Inverse folding.
C-alpha cells in the first residue's frame, strides 16, 4: 500500500477551561491515501468540525489536542511550530469552511485574498499571481475573472463566495483538501452546482480529500470511503458501496433511512428519534443507546469497541 | 466619495448656525458682562457707563448683535477683543499653533503606544499582560489630567528640577528645539497618559471583535504569516470603528488641552478661552465656541467619510454582480 497522505491516530480533542475538560473528539483513527476521497459524516454536533480543525491545527484558543497524532506524509502536525505549520497550510493542506458568507475578509478585494497565498507560497510576482488567480476563477466558473478580482466579497452571493474559497484553496495545488460542509449553508440549487464543480476539480487534480458532510446523499456522489461519526467517536467505517448496501451500525441505518435516495421518496423518510447528546453528557455505555431502536441491556452497560466485522468494514456496536 | 463629503459639509451649515445661535444666547444669559468691572464701580459716572455700553454695541437687541457678528464672520472678521484691544483672529492665530502642537504630538504619541499594545492585549486577552495593562488603563482613565499635571510638575520640575514647570520656551531665550522639547515633555506626557489609556481600550476591544471572525481563521488556513494575519486582515477591519471614535474624540482633545494649558501656562486656545470666559470677552468667546463647534462637526464628518473610505460595504451603489 502506498504511503498515506494523512494519518490520524487516536486523536482526542478537548475544550478546556480552568475547571473542566470537555472531550469533543474522542480517540479517532483514520487514514487518507493518495487520491482518495474520504467522507466524514454525522449529524451536527458529532465533532466533525473539531476533527478537521484539529488536523489543520486551527482549533480555537479554548480547545486543544489532548492526545494523539496527525501525520501529514509522515510528519506529525501536533505540536508543530506555527511557522512550520504555516508553510503547509494553504500550500500542501487547504481547507474550505461551512460559512461562505463570513469566511472572506470584507475589506479586501477578492483579488488580494486570492493572490496573497499564491505570492506567499509559490514566490511568484504580483502580475503572475493575478494571472493565476484569473485562471482559477475561470475554473470555478467566473467567465470574467478580472472583474471579479476587483470586487469586494459583500457584492457576491453565497455560492459565488464559496466558489472563490474553492479557487483560493486550490490555487497552490495542495495535495490534501479538507472541505467542512462546503455546501450546507447554500441554497439547494446552488448546492448541486458547487458539488458538481468540486467533483470536476477533483477529477482533474490528484488530490486527497476529506469531505465533511451531514448528508449521506452527497457522500454517494463524492467519496470512495466513508467514516461515520457519532458523539465524538467513529461508529462505522467502510467503502461507499458496502455502507449503502450493508450498513451495520444502527446509527448509519438511521441516517440512511432519513436521507432521500431518489427524488420523490420523501414520504418514506424516517428521522432518528432524539438528538446528539452534547459533549460531556454522553451516556456510560454505547453513546447511541438512548436513541437506538435495537438497544439491549449490554448496550447501556458497556461501551462497545470499534471492531473489524468484515475485512475493511469496522463497526462500533455490540450487536453487529 | 467626493460628492458624499460635499453633501455632508453642506448639511453641516444649518447645524453650525444653530450652534452659534444657542451659544450666543447662553453666553449672553450668563450673569455679568464685559463691562462689569466698570459698571459695578460706583466711582464711574452713569454717562460714561452708557457711552461704553453703546461703544461696544451692547445696548442693541440681541438679534441685532448676533446679526452684526455673523455678518462679520462671513466677511472673515471675528471682531476685536474687548479687553485686549486686538483683532480676535490675530489672537487665535497666535495661539492655535501652540494648541495644535500639544494636541497633535500627544495624540500621535498615544497612538504609537496604544495601537501595538491594544492589539497585543487583544491577541493575549485575559493573559497576565492583558490584566496588567488593563489595570494601568483603568488608572489612566480615572486620574484627572490636571492632577497628574500638577504631580508631574512637583516631581520633575520642583523636586528633581529636570524639566521646566510651564510655558513653551525659556523666558528671554532664543528659540531652540531642545528647549522646546523640554517644555513640551510634561504637558505632552500628561495629555498622552489619559489618551493612551482610552485608545488602548478602544483598540483592544475593536480588535477583539475582529480576532474571532471566520475570515481570520481563513487567513490562518491560507498559511499567511502572523503579522499579515494580524494587521492586513485583522487591524484593517478594526480600524473601521476606530475611525468613528477618532472623529468623535476630536473636540475632546481641545477640551483636554484647555485644562492642561492652564496647568502648564501654555499660551494656547484653551487658555485664551478660559481668560475670555472669566472676563466675559464676548468676541473671543464666540470665536472660540465657533471654532469648537466647527471642529466637532468636522470631526463627525471626518469620521463618516473615513468610515465610508475604510469599509467597502458602505458604498451606496447597489449594482448586483453576476458571474
Ligand atoms: N466553543 C465551544 N465550546 C465548547 N464546546 C464546543 C464549542 N464548539 C463546539 N463545541 C462542542 O463540540 C462538539 C462538536 O462540535 P463540532 O465539531 O462543531 O460538530 P459538527 O461539526 O460535527 O457539527 C459539540 O458537542 C459542540 O457542542
Ligand atoms: Mg461543523
Amino acid at each position: 500500500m502506498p504511503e498515506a497522505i494523512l494519518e490520524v491516530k487516536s486523536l482526542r480533542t478537548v475544550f478546556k477551561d480552568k475547571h473542566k475538560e470537555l472531550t469533543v473528539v474522542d480517540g479517532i483513527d483514520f487514514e487518507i491515501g493518495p487520491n482518495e476521497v474520504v467522507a466524514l459524516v454525522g449529524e451536527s454536533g458529532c465533532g466533525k468540525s473539531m476533527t478537521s480543525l484539529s488536523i489543520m491545527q486551527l482549533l480555537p484558543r479554548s480547545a486543544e489536542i489532548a492526545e494523539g497524532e496527525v501525520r501529514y506524509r509522515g510528519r506529525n502536525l501536533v505540536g508543530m511550530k506555527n511557522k512550520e505549520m504555516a508553510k503547509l497550510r494553504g500550500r500542501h493542506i487547504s481547507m474550505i469552511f461551512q460559512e461562505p458568507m463570513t469566511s472572506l475578509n470584507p475589506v479586501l478585494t477578492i483579488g488580494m485574498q486570492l493572490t496573497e497565498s499564491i505570492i506567499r507560497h509559490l514566490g511568484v510576482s504580483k502580475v503572475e499571481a493575478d494571472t493565476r488567480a484569473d485562471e482559477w476563477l475561470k475554473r470555478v466558473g467566473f467567465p470574467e475573472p478580472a472583474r471579479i478580482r476587483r470586487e469586494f466579497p459583500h457584492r457576491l452571493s453565497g455560492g459565488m463566495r464559496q466558489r472563490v474559497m474553492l479557487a483560493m484553496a486550490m490555487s497552490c495545488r495542495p495535495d490534501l483538501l479538507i472541505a467542512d460542509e462546503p455546501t450546507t449553508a447554500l441554497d439547494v440549487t446552488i448546492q448541486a452546482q458547487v458539488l458538481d464543480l468540486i467533483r470536476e476539480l477533483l477529477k482533474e487534480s490528484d488530490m486527497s480529500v476529506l469531505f465533511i458532510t451531514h448528508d449521506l446523499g452527497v457522500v454517494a456522489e463524492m467519496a470512495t470511503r466513508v467514516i461515520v461519526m457519532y458523539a465524538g467517536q467513529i461508529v462505522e467505517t467502510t467503502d461507499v458501496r458496502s455502507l449503502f448496501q450493508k450498513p451495520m451500525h444502527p446509527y448509519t441505518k438511521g441516517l440512511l433511512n432519513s436521507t432521500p435516495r431518489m427524488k420523490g421518496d420523501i414520504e418514506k423518510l424516517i428521522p432518528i428519534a432524539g438528538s446528539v447528546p452534547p459533549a460531556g453528557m454522553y451516556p456510560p455505555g454505547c453513546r447511541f443507546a438512548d436513541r437506538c431502536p435495537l438497544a439491549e441491556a449490554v448496550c447501556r452497560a458497556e461501551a462497545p469497541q470499534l471492531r473489524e466485522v468484515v475485512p475493511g468494514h469496522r463497526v462500533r456496536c455490540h450487536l453487529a | 466619495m467626493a460628492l458624499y463629503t460635499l453633501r455632508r459639509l453642506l448639511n453641516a451649515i444649518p447645524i453650525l448656525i444653530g450652534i452659534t445661535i444657542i451659544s450666543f444666547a447662553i453666553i449672553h444669559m450668563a450673569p455679568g458682562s464685559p463691562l462689569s468691572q466698570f459698571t459695578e464701580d460706583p466711582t464711574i459716572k452713569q454717562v460714561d457707563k452708557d457711552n461704553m455700553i453703546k461703544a461696544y454695541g451692547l445696548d442693541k437687541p440681541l438679534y441685532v448683535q448676533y446679526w452684526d457678528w455673523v455678518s462679520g464672520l462671513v466677511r472673515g472678521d471675528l471682531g476685536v477683543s474687548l479687553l485686549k484691544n486686538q483683532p480676535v483672529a490675530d489672537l487665535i492665530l497666535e495661539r492655535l499653533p501652540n494648541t495644535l502642537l500639544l494636541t497633535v504630538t500627544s495624540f500621535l504619541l498615544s497612538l504609537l503606544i496604544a495601537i501595538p499594545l491594544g492589539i497585543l492585549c487583544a491577541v493575549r486577552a485575559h493573559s497576565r499582560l492583558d490584566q496588567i495593562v488593563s489595570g494601568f488603563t483603568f488608572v489612566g482613565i480615572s486620574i484627572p489630567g490636571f492632577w497628574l499635571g500638577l504631580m508631574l510638575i512637583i516631581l520633575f520640575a520642583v523636586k528633581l528640577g529636570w524639566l521646566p514647570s510651564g510655558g513653551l520656551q525659556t523666558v528671554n531665550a532664543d528659540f531652540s528645539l531642545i528647549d522646546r522639547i523640554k517644555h513640551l515633555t510634561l504637558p505632552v506626557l500628561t495629555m498622552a497618559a489619559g489618551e493612551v489609556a482610552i485608545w488602548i481600550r478602544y483598540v483592544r476591544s475593536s480588535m477583539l471583535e475582529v480576532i474571532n471572525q471566520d475570515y481570520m481563521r481563513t487567513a490562518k488556513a491560507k498559511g499567511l504569516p502572523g503579522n499579515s494575519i494580524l494587521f492586513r486582515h485583522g487591524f484593517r477591519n478594526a480600524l473601521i470603528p476606530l475611525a468613528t471614535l477618532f472623529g468623535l474624540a476630536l473636540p475632546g482633545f481641545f477640551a483636554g488641552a484647555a485644562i492642561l494649558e492652564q496647568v502648564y501656562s501654555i499660551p494656547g486656545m484653551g487658555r485664551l478661552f478660559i481668560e475670555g470666559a472669566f472676563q466675559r470677552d464676548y468676541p473671543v468667546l464666540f470665536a472660540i465656541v465657533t471654532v469648537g463647534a466647527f471642529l466637532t462637526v468636522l470631526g463627525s464628518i471626518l469620521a463618516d467619510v473615513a468610515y465610508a473610505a475604510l469599509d467597502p460595504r458602505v458604498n451606496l451603489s447597489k449594482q448586483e454582480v453576476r458571474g
Notes: Chain A is about 30% helix and 25% strand. Residues 44 and 196 of chain A are 23 Å apart (CA to CA).
